[in-house]
Amino acid sequence: MAEQKNKRYPMTKAATAASLCAALLLAPAYAAQAAGEADHGHAETEQAAPGGESANEKEKIALTPEQIALAGIKSEAAAPAVLATSAQFPGEIKFNADRTAHVVPRMAGVVQGVSADLGQQVRKGDLLATLSSSALSELRSEWLAAAKRRDLAAQTHKRELRLWQEKVSAEQDYQAARTALQEAEIAVQNAEQKLRTVGAEPRSKDLGSLEIRAPFDGVVVEKHIALGEALPDNASIFTLSDLRTVWAEFVIAPKDLQDVRVGESASVSSAAFSGKAEGTVSYIGSLLGQQTRTATARVTLENPDMAWRPGLFVSVDVVTRKSDAAVAVAADAVQTVDNEPVVFVEVEGGFLVQPVKLGKASADRVEVLSGLAPGTRYAVENTFVLKSELGKAGAEHAH
């Protein structure tokens, strides 16, 4: 493939330094090799290899095991692989809306105390703020009155039951007492339910004290409350989010929708740091935005270390298709020699330049259609050192 043939691998400063160091280490081997080949001239290199093999296939880089180790050259065996093709989308880290809550007082009142601060980590049930509410005072008074009536009804029921069993009073008096007790118990339950609906406990030393508590473990990401402030019952005073999971949201153009599916593997990375997270596409919008004409999608990420902060710009790589390769090698192992892709095959006493025909590629592996058999060991790391030494050897042959 033209793409693979023209592939160049840029060398970093560290790689350049390693190459120079390796050149010094490998120089003795090439000096001996060049001296031996000088007696035969250039006729042997110009002669075509048997079976139509190119001259590159016969080029050997002679190295001792010590030189290979010093140059940091590592090998592995060519093997079958599943190649995953991916598409990249720009995205942004967002709060997990399923684990984000807007905390409201549910009753009007005046702020008496604020216990939570912005950015604070809280646990479920932790006190966030305290309000004084006249409406809550009325509800608690209603509950107390109902509880008193229930206690009196229970005493009356107990007395009427005893008198009826002793045949002192009529059965209808006992039945009336039992009905009154049941009605009193219902009234208490109703008053309790009203209090629990607004998040208040029935029993409190201060009838009007409303305690606002965290609904789950999370971080206070928004705070809109101040001491002495009069709040309506629907005021959003805190926003709490569980940042142990976040969403990586991105948009998909219509032309890419057929390639991205819910459940596909995805990788999320950021230029802000070197971390990378793996996840799956958990949602793709059914509708296109009226302004952008794109569909919103997201990947749910585990975030135990809180490294993925909402608002962070990220890149989302989504696997779009997978294919099986009978033989595959590491993408970094492929170099270009004489405008042909090659790998360096491990042989006794060094490495042999082996031209290959490449097929499909993933982020880190590439299919080999011909030129390399499964199980063949090849150089996979620091192959630029071998290419550099090959170039030096070629220059020496030219002279």
TrEMBL record:
<feature type="domain" description="CusB-like beta-barrel">
    <location>
        <begin position="245"/>
        <end position="320"/>
    </location>
</feature>
<dbReference type="GO" id="GO:0046914">
    <property type="term" value="F:transition metal ion binding"/>
</dbReference>
<dbReference type="GO" id="GO:0015679">
    <property type="term" value="P:plasma membrane copper ion transport"/>
</dbReference>
<dbReference type="Pfam" id="PF25954">
    <property type="entry name" value="Beta-barrel_RND_2"/>
</dbReference>
<feature type="coiled-coil region">
    <location>
        <begin position="167"/>
        <end position="201"/>
    </location>
</feature>
<dbReference type="GO" id="GO:0060003">
    <property type="term" value="P:copper ion export"/>
</dbReference>
<comment type="function">
    <text>CzcA and CzcB together would act in zinc efflux nearly as effectively as the complete czc efflux system (CzcABC). The CzcB protein is thought to funnel zinc cations to the CzcA transport protein.</text>
</comment>
<dbReference type="Pfam" id="PF25973">
    <property type="entry name" value="BSH_CzcB"/>
</dbReference>
<dbReference type="GO" id="GO:0022857">
    <property type="term" value="F:transmembrane transporter activity"/>
</dbReference>
<dbReference type="Pfam" id="PF25893">
    <property type="entry name" value="HH_CzcB"/>
</dbReference>
<feature type="domain" description="CzcB-like alpha-helical hairpin">
    <location>
        <begin position="138"/>
        <end position="196"/>
    </location>
</feature>
<dbReference type="InterPro" id="IPR058792">
    <property type="entry name" value="Beta-barrel_RND_2"/>
</dbReference>
<dbReference type="InterPro" id="IPR058647">
    <property type="entry name" value="BSH_CzcB-like"/>
</dbReference>
<dbReference type="Pfam" id="PF25975">
    <property type="entry name" value="CzcB_C"/>
</dbReference>
<feature type="signal peptide">
    <location>
        <begin position="1"/>
        <end position="34"/>
    </location>
</feature>
<dbReference type="GO" id="GO:0030288">
    <property type="term" value="C:outer membrane-bounded periplasmic space"/>
</dbReference>
<keyword id="KW-0732">Signal</keyword>
<dbReference type="InterPro" id="IPR058648">
    <property type="entry name" value="HH_CzcB-like"/>
</dbReference>
<dbReference type="GO" id="GO:0016020">
    <property type="term" value="C:membrane"/>
</dbReference>
<keyword id="KW-0175">Coiled coil</keyword>
<dbReference type="InterPro" id="IPR006143">
    <property type="entry name" value="RND_pump_MFP"/>
</dbReference>
<feature type="domain" description="CzcB-like barrel-sandwich hybrid">
    <location>
        <begin position="99"/>
        <end position="242"/>
    </location>
</feature>
<feature type="region of interest" description="Disordered">
    <location>
        <begin position="37"/>
        <end position="58"/>
    </location>
</feature>
<dbReference type="GO" id="GO:0046686">
    <property type="term" value="P:response to cadmium ion"/>
</dbReference>
<keyword id="KW-0105">Cadmium resistance</keyword>
<feature type="domain" description="CzcB-like C-terminal circularly permuted SH3-like">
    <location>
        <begin position="327"/>
        <end position="387"/>
    </location>
</feature>
<dbReference type="InterPro" id="IPR051909">
    <property type="entry name" value="MFP_Cation_Efflux"/>
</dbReference>
<comment type="similarity">
    <text>Belongs to the membrane fusion protein (MFP) (TC 8.A.1) family.</text>
</comment>
<dbReference type="InterPro" id="IPR058649">
    <property type="entry name" value="CzcB_C"/>
</dbReference>
<keyword id="KW-0813">Transport</keyword>
<protein>
    <submittedName>
        <fullName>Cobalt-zinc-cadmium resistance protein CzcB</fullName>
    </submittedName>
</protein>
<keyword id="KW-0862">Zinc</keyword>
<keyword id="KW-0170">Cobalt</keyword>
